[in-house]
Write a structure and sequence with these properties.
The complex is a heterotrimer.
Chain A (H helix, E strand, L loop, with lengths): L1 H19 L3 H23 L22 H31 L13
Chain B lengths: L10 H23 L8 H19 L1 H7 L2 H21 L25 H33 L1
Chain C lengths: L9 H16 L6 H27 L2 E4 L10 E4 L1 H24 L6 H20 L3 H19 L5 H32 L4 H10 L4 H18 L8 H7 L2 H28 L3 H23 L4 H22 L2 H32 L15 H15 L5 H15 L3 H26 L15 H16 L6 H7 L1 H9 L2 H9 L2
Antiparallel strand pairs in C: 1-2
Helix pairs in contact in C: 1-2, 1-4, 2-3, 2-4, 3-4, 3-10, 3-13, 3-17, 3-19, 4-5, 4-10, 5-6, 5-10, 6-8, 6-9, 7-10, 7-20, 8-10, 9-10, 9-12, 10-12, 10-13, 10-19, 11-12, 11-16, 12-13, 12-15, 12-16, 13-14, 13-15, 13-17, 13-19, 14-16, 14-17, 15-16
The chains are: A mainly alpha, B mainly alpha, C mainly alpha.
């Protein structure tokens, strides 16, 4: 149970970073932290007591293995996270090019 | 390559890079080709292959890395990877189902087995490797544009 | 498995193939992206009409990708609700693709636009057609990432800012959805939506369903721009190029937000009275706040974006009511809103194309110079405000009647009042932009090119005849089966698991 709570705390750190920080790069870091907390949670859900990695090989028989499906799914989620992060970083760089700052309190063309 | 001391990092880094970069590339190809037998696969292998080029770029500067793999070729590889994957999926219709594993599966734990999976891995590797390196190249080039303006 | 069901995976495959072929060949063949864009979307439109015909004849189709059997493999499901959404999405996509042929000439790299456009379309079609929880998340992210990039397409100051805001909020929304899916998976040990529904039905009632409901409400509500989560929409939708604004407001928030919301709450988790009252309350709140904020705007596209929030509120109110009439009316309003809101965004794009401004105060009397835009805008405005006999009138009337029948008089009153507010805001647009005296500087304004007019005229025509969807014979083909799927609730699971194999 403790380990799930630690995972929740990590997620909340990410959310805090997204909501409170004023620097665009720090917001992106917050997103990355929250994303990894979600992925970590998924991996933790897959764990079985005393389970081992679900790698099938000819010379051993596996009796007790962890759930393999979430591993594949987390890989997909990581790929999606990679795409999102790359896009966010490129947008942040373009914003710096136009505004000359990373501070979101100074970037406010849009209002109302 | 060793003649160009002007660009990139120091001689030590360049020498180490020259020795290791081929091995990294080979390891990436190994991971892709054995994706259906051992942990790994198209995505992991593609990332490693992209990292070998990024390594080259960090050590020698962007010109040399881009001479090996230029931007139009990157986007070509990326599109070819995607189209190959999609056509493998569509070829499944020949057996009656989308994404059907229509080639004979062979014996388990042999290199030539598992039907379409190795081909899917190769397509994914092309897409991921080219895509990741393209992202890196774009970020680097964009930064240079911004500096030139100032 | 019948041979006709092979068209099901094509909805994703065709749009992806179009996107990749464009990116592969566009550098050599400059003329190709236009033709490929329109052709791909036309094929998809034809396929989705075939899908309506199929579901009308034989009910629900289940397609097992790669011939993996149901609970373990990924299944694609074609039921009447899906085919209804597919027709809506692909109709708007086709018309905006036709419109972009002329409109996108202002931008430099057309092929990038079409690649992203078709990727977004693939994502939306995938979200609608999939029967697997994680697959839904993947397609949702494909559509969302493509739309972030499309919002930033112009790379001007405000576009980048809007895209950043949209991307951050959208990613947080997706994270909530992912965590919700993890909770569901850990509880039911399956990802197939039908299987999941059945297991949830057999297991005892748990608090977990409550947590998952809240997470999904936040995640999908953010995608659908319900009021507490609406802050990204008024920035993101006006900043995109006009065809993309039409797609975002017209279908993206509906397929990613509303469709997923009703599919999961009605068919997988099972709706209860507290959830439906939350939905009704949030819907009414979006209706009121969106309407009030819209009326003060002077930027045409921003006004339309706020009005989208307000109209989405109507749809969510109808879905929250939970009565057969309410759901049918909500789905009908969803279709109508896609049609007239995308028409209005295309109008705003036409104005921007011709005059170069979006500020209503600078326009005036433009109907004399741009008769097609003026007329279609008039039709769309009257339709969204609910003037009979246009389609918007019928769907709003049905929502109000449904609210009265369910003894929700307060909500019905709100719906009527906001309808009047909507009329006011669109009369404002008509007065400042199209009617009145022509200003000196617009004397040289020309009517927009052919393809743009064509798309707008077709949409306006659908606005006029939209009411015929309510005639019993047509409604039985298109609208009624779709709402029956939602009303059937958890029968969805048994239909898919046992019905067709």
């Amino acid at each position: 149970m403790t380990i799930y709570l630690l995972c929740l705390i990590l997620f909340c750190c990410g959310l805090y970073c997204i909501l409170r920080k004023r620097n665009i790069i720090k917001i992106i870091l917050g997103i990355i932290i929250a994303e990894y907390a979600a992925n970590l949670f998924f991996i933790l859900v897959a764990y079985r007591l005393n389970g081992r990695a679900p790698i099938f090989s000819p010379d051993t028989t596996i009796t007790n293995m962890v759930d393999p499906l979430p591993h594949a799914l987390v890989l997909t989620a990581i790929v999606i996270g990679l795409a999102t992060t790359a896009l966010l970083v490129i947008i942040a760089m373009r914003i710096y090019e136009k505004y000359g700052t990373f501070d979101i309190t100074k970037i406010k063309e849009l209002k109302g | 390559m060793s003649r160009e001391h002007g660009k990139g990092m120091s001689l030590i880094v360049k020498t180490v890079t020259r020795l290791t970069v081929g091995l990294i590339l080979l390891y990436g190809i190994y991971i892709v080709l054995h994706g259906h037998l051992s942990p790994g696969g198209g995505f992991a292998g593609g990332v490693i292959i992209a990292l070998s080029f990024i390594h080259l770029m960090l050590a020698y500067g962007k010109e040399i890395a881009l001479k090996k793999l230029s931007k139009p070729i990157l986007s070509l590889f990326e599109s070819i990877g995607a189209i190959t994957f999609l056509s493998i999926a569509l070829l499944g219709f020949s057996g009656g189902y989308f994404f059907l594993n229509f080639i004979s599966k062979g014996k388990p734990f042999k290199l030539f087995s598992a039907g379409i999976i190795p081909f899917c891995n190769i397509a994914i590797c092309l897409k991921v490797g080219a895509g990741l390196f393209a992202i890196f190249v774009v970020l680097v080039l964009l930064k240079f544009d911004a500096e030139n303006k100032e | 498995m019948t041979p006709t069901s092979h068209i099901i995976p094509l909805f994703v495959a065709v749009s992806l193939a179009g996107a990749f072929l464009i990116s592969l060949t566009a550098k050599k063949l400059k003329w190709l992206p236009d033709i490929m864009g329109s052709l791909t979307t036309l094929i998809l439109l034809v396929l989705s009409i075939v899908a309506v015909y199929m579901t009308n004849k034989q009910g629900t189709f289940v397609y097992n990708a790669g011939n993996w059997k149901l609970p373990s493999g990924i299944s694609l499901v074609l039921d009447p609700l899906t085919s209804f959404m597919l027709v809506t999405i692909n109709l708007i996509a086709f018309l905006t693709a036709v419109y972009s042929v002329n409109y996108m000439e202002r931008f430099t790299s057309k092929w990038k636009f079409y690649t992203l456009f078709l990727l977004m379309l693939a994502g939306m079609n995938g979200v609608v057609i999939t029967g697997d929880m994680f697959n839904l998340f993947v397609f949702l992210e494909i559509a969302a990432v493509a739309s972030y990039a499309l919002v930033a397409f112009g790379t001007e100051k405000h576009e980048l800012e809007a895209a950043f805001k949209y991307a951050v909020m959208g990613t947080v929304g997706s994270l909530f959805i992912l965590i919700g899916i993890v909770f569901l998976y850990s509880y039911t040990s399956t990802l197939n939506m039908a299987d999941m529904a059945q297991i949830l039905l057999q297991k005892p009632k748990a608090n977990l369903t409550l947590i998952v409901s809240v997470l999904f409400l936040m995640g999908f509500g953010l995608k659908a721009a319900m009021v507490p989560f609406h802050a990204w929409l008024p920035d993101a939708h006006p900043s995109a190029p006009a065809p993309i604004s039409a797609m975002l407001s017209g279908v993206l928030i509906k397929s990613l937000g509303i469709y997923t919301l009703c599919r999961i709450f009605y068919n997988v988790l099972g709706i209860n009275s507290s959830l439906s009252s939350i939905l009704m309350f949030l819907g009414t709140l979006s209706m009121i706040i969106g309407g009030l904020l819209a009326i003060g705007q002077w930027d045409f596209k921003r006004l339309l974006a706020y009005s989208s929030i307000s109209q989405v509120g109507y749809i969510i109110l109808g879905i929250g009511l939970g009565t057969p009439l309410g759901i049918a009316a909500a789905l009908f309003h969803l279709f109508n809103h896609s049609v007239f809101k995308s028409l209005l965004f295309l109008n705003s794009g036409a104005l921007e194309y011709a005059t170069g401004t979006r500020d209503l105060r600078e326009m005036g009397g433009l109907t004399q110079k741009m008769p097609v835009t003026g007329t279609t805008n008039f039709i769309a405005s009257m339709s969204i405000a609910g003037i009979p006999p246009l389609n918007g009138f019928w769907s709003k009337l049905l929502i109000i009647i449904a609210a009265v029948q369910a003894n929700r008089y307060g909500y019905a009153l709100c719906a009527v009042l906001i309808s009047i507010l909507t009329l006011a805001m669109y009369i404002k647009v008509l007065k400042f932009a199209f009617l009145g005296r022509l200003k000196e500087k617009w004397n040289k304004v020309k009517e927009i090119p052919r393809f743009m007019s064509l798309a707008m005229v077709i949409l306006a025509f659908i606005c006029i005849i939209g009411g015929i969807l309510l005639i019993p014979n047509i409604s039985n083909i298109f609208l009624k089966p779709a709402s029956d799927i939602l009303m059937g609730g958890k029968n969805y699971a048994s239909i898919i698991l046992e019905g067709i194999q």
